[in-house]
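Q: Give me the 3D complex with iron/sulfur cluster.
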Amino acid sequence: MTDKFLVSVSRCSSYEADEVYNALADALGKIGGWPKANMPDELLFKTNLLAPKPPDKAVTTHPSVVSALIKLARNSGFSGKITVADSPGHLHTDKKEELLKITGMFDAVKDDGNAVATILSDAGFVTLKRPSNIILKDLTVSKRYYEAPYVVNMAKLKTHVETEITACIKNCFGIADTNTRKKAHLSTSINRLCNAIIDLYSINPPKINILDGIYAMEGNGPTHGKPRFAGLLMASENALAVDFVAAKAMGYKDPLDIPLINLAAKRGIGPSSMSDITIIGIDPDNLEIKGFAKRASSSRMLPTWLRGWAHRWVALSPHLQEVNCIRCGVCVKVCPKSAIKMNPLPEIDRRICVKCLCCHEMCPTGAMEVRENFIMKLLRM
Ligand code: SF4
Ligand code: SF4
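A: Here is the predicted complex, encoded as structure tokens.
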């Protein structure tokens, strides 16, 4: 492939195995297929396994896409080991078997004699110093990921309550250990989190990026949104190029309005306009998923530069829906600022909450809802 920002898009109407295989073969073929030369003897498929949810909830990368990619690799002549892995939200790491079973990952690898499904933390962590990083100058990441000679990013197309969308680059946030993730969330600045995600992505950028957007998630993703048929599979060597195109598909007129895509463009790792990208396989004018529900927030009415600064006042904030709370205490454990105490239900200290929404994301019942700030409600009237 010669085009730096080449993205292929294939239509796929279901997760039926043959159809996914053909659509994925088409998408990969259009970006040059699997490289035949200089391939290492091991591939790491970095999936999105955020939580132990069944595939039809659209929280995780679908197993049909994973098994299709394993077959494609084999049919291209690759005979080495394939490891399918991710780090789930840190409270699920002790539920490895349950996670891999419920998300369908055991099924995805079962017909291949040299593919395994696991979690990234299984092989331990490595602590790195990166003085040139903007946020994470000291960081701890999965050893398996850091040392992988060839990473294939297998992301899921979803909305995200904090970063607007989660697709290929955000999928790399999962390589960090719990403390590094908490460090990324330590302030009210959305730019801090986005720059931390870019710092993590730059550790070992995936060689190929696949986006599972056959069923996407709309609304308040990445955990509590609604599955939405989108019928799209994308492939590219550049994660940000896929995310740019994905944002267009989700109805963002200018993907640079999304702080993560904007900052990545400024740091020189992604496109800075649609004209930088070559899209093949679909007419860009027919890309948009009609009526796709973005996350609940009107803060996107503000210019991107102001949104980073004004996050504290305009961001969504967590609110407990008492009737749905099972008092599990997960929100207390994930909060990077220790802003939640059980009394006996969770109580949030608003003076120290940074609105990172980790409590919302990891709440197993959806009891920690997100609400828009009254200033933004007024602006929208
Ligand atoms: S709000 Fe959610 S995470 Fe927190 S205690 Fe209740 S059910 Fe558990
Ligand atoms: S209370 Fe929730 S939103 Fe606030 S800092 Fe803690 S985890 Fe983040």
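A quick observation: The CA atoms of residues 304 and 376 lie 15 Å apart.
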